[in-house]
Specification:
By secondary structure, the chain is α/β, with parallel strands linked by helices. The chain has 14 helices and 15 strands. A seven-stranded parallel β-sheet has the order 3-2-1-4-5-6-7, sandwiched between helices. Strands 12-11-10-13-14-15 form a six-stranded parallel β-sheet, sandwiched between helices. Strands 8-9 form a two-stranded antiparallel sheet. The longest helix is centred in the first third of the chain and has 22 residues. The two termini are 12 Å apart.
Length: 418
């Protein structure tokens, strides 16, 4: 039965609310028939502007994770249990206030959804399943530069405990790509729909007249040779080390190129570094004497509008990733009409086809990366059709308003959807 149009109560749960849910939350809140309540971690949401005046955001504090005395296999699990317990207590308070959700939507990665079915047993529970860790075929063991032990294999098996409990509890779920869905145990695939969060191609679009200043230097696509690389944090999972090692070769092949590197110095994924160290400092030092740093611009993290502007003047955009979660930035770069030079890894290959809407190369093949950059900068006109097809791919498959958001709304409001 299609419930759209009837009064429905929605509860969204994400420690970094709104996380992956901003568009669907706004759309539901815009509908007079629906009420939307959210739960998020206080430190992550307190300083953000209100997502929608109708959305009530409840926050919690989570200061304690797994302790040193806890076996290192289950420290993440203990932290998830503690977070789940905290969120469950907050959910009980929300229930006491008179709010009973018809649908609960949450990210499973941090344990927040672990006990919500116990608090709201009558609700339909829909979970976001982003990534299931395995010792083979994905991120783990992919890069020989970083050791992977038998102990790591055992720890990774336990790392999925929270996800497995969430899979059992969920009535339905969704993943953003087919490959990410495929990582979960096969017996649960029927529960997980592939629905991407969507790209607003009305906002994320090429602008051939855009001029951007970087360190006082005006840059414009077609007039400047601009190589862009970005990641939320500059780290090996997103190929930062591979890219940095190509800088001397790129500058030798394209001495007039400007290189813009966008991203922070934290670690989102993978191995943390000792205090005071960053991957940027490590790999900058490694190539220090071989690079003309006057033509390399580290921007740090930038505003969303600044980020879009920088990619709008890009001549060649580099995207590398381990076989792992696909970045929004890659699909946004395609929507911006960038010339995509990307690693031939999953799930990149789900979106980019070699020679059609981008150039793919082996993640570790620095010479192939440099050759692709040099050809792109040297023959920009030859890549215009590829840039157009990159954007068209996003419009046809990942557009927010015509495809992804309508599909997500149907999924969340249809009690029979699975």
């Amino acid at each position: 039965m299609e419930l759209l149009g009837f009064l429905m109560n929605f509860l969204f749960v994400h420690q970094n609310f709104p996380g992956q849910f901003p568009h669907v939350v706004r759309s539901l809140a815009d509908m007079p028939a629906h009420r939307v309540v959210a739960i998020g971690e206080e430190k992550n949401v307190v300083h953000r502007s209100l997502l929608h005046p109708k959305v009530i955001v409840n926050t919690y504090r989570q200061d304690k994770g797994g302790g040193r005395e806890t076996h290192h296999y289950i420290r993440d699990y203990e932290a998830a249990i503690r977070r789940g317990q905290t969120v469950a207590r907050l959910a009980i308070d929300i229930r006491k206030s008179g709010f009973y959700p018809d649908v609960v939507v949450g990210h499973t990665g941090w344990g927040e959804t672990l006990f919500l079915k116990d608090v709201f047993p009558a609700a339909r529970h829909i979970s976001y399943f982003e990534y299931f860790y395995r010792a083979e075929g994905g991120d783990v063991g992919f890069d020989p530069e970083f050791s992977f032990s038998f102990d790591d294999r055992l720890r990774i098996r336990v790392k999925n405990t929270t996800q497995l409990l969430s899979l059992e509890a969920a009535d339905a779920g969704f993943s953003p790509t087919g490959w990410q869905q495929s990582r979960f145990p096969e017996e649960y695939h029927r529960k997980i729909r592939v629905i991407h969060e969507g790209i607003d191609t009305r906002i994320v679009h090429p602008d051939p007249d855009k001029v951007v200043e970087v360190d006082g230097i005006p840059l414009k696509r077609g007039y400047s040779k601009v190589v862009t690389f970005l990641s939320r944090n500059l780290e090996p999972y997103r190929g930062f080390h591979v890219f940095m090692r190509t800088l001397p070769l790129i500058q030798k092949a394209c001495p007039d190129a400007r290189v813009i590197i966008i991203g922070g110095d934290g670690v989102s994924y993978g191995r943390k570094l000792p205090d005071g160290q960053t991957y940027r400092s490590i790999y900058t030092a490694e190539v220090h004497d071989k690079v003309d740093w006057s033509k390399v611009h580290f921007t740090g993290r930038v505003s969303y509008n600044r980020y879009l502007s920088l990619l709008q003047v890009s001549s060649a955009h580099i995207y590398l990733t381990y076989p792992f979660v696909l970045s929004w930035s890659m699909i946004e770069a395609m929507a911006l009409g960038c010339t995509m030079i990307a690693s031939a890894t999953a799930p990149v290959q789900e979106v980019i086809t070699q020679g059609e809407n981008g150039v793919l190369f082996n993640f570790f093949d620095q010479n192939a990366l440099v050759a692709a950059v040099a050809d792109t900068l040297g023959n920009p006109g030859a890549y215009q059709a590829m840039r157009d097809r990159a954007r068209q791919t996003v419009v046809e498959r990942y557009d927010l308003h015509s495809k992804c958001l309508p599909e997500m709304l149907r999924f969340l409001t249809d009690a029979n959807a699975s």
